[in-house]
Specification:
This protein starts with a strand and ends with a helix. The radius of gyration is 23 Å and the shape is elongated. Helix 1 packs antiparallel against helix 2. It contains four helices and seven strands, in the order βααββββαββα. It has two domains: about 1-80; about 85-165, no CATH class. By secondary structure, the protein is an alpha+beta fold.
Length: about 160
């Protein structure tokens, strides 16, 4: 039995991309505030904080809190719980942060597999394997390029040996 784990490169890539998106959203909201001040100068003359300012700053705070909570805290914790095992008879997927999930699929039930690799997946670890069986599907996600090729090759070998090829 060989165990496989999610690759941390995908976590780093997700953090970087979401940080860039959050920064773009914040700049967009700040530009919206600038645009509103230019378009409706009489509304923003008062010293008190206006409703659009409250809404924009609230949205910025929500995005920053969501980024910190989900991308910097919950997602790394989830990554540590994910593991896959491939034995001679079955595939086992274990994951879950709040509820532990264990999925078992017999290799004898496997109909076909699909390996999905995104561009630059060697660097981002966005490699997924969809194992399809009668009545079910098992998804192995965020694997390193080497692990994804190895798992796909082992399952493919098993399917060919079962078919007598």
């Amino acid at each position: 039995m060989k165990k496989y784990y999610t690759d941390k490169k995908s976590l780093t890539f997700l953090r970087a991309v979401t940080l860039i998106i959050i920064i773009c959203i914040i700049y967009g909201l700040k530009y919206l505030m600038y645009y509103l001040r230019q378009k409706y100068p009489k509304y923003f003359v008062t010293i008190n904080v206006t409703v659009p300012e409250i809404v924009v700053w609230s949205l910025i705070a929500i995005f920053v809190i969501a980024y910190v909570l989900f991308i910097l805290i919950i997602l790394p914790l989830w990554y540590t719980t994910v593991s896959y095992a491939l034995t001679d008879e079955e595939i086992i997927a274990k994951y879950g942060l709040f509820a532990k999930v264990r999925q078992y699929m017999k290799l004898s039930a496997v109909q076909y597999i699909t390996r999905l690799s995104f561009p630059f997946s060697k660097y981002t670890s966005f490699n997924f394997i969809f194992v399809n069986a009668l009545g079910g599907r098992l998804v192995l996600m965020f694997l390193s390029d080497k692990d994804a090729k190895e798992i796909a090759l082992q399952i493919d070998r098993y399917l060919k040996s079962r078919a007598g090829l």
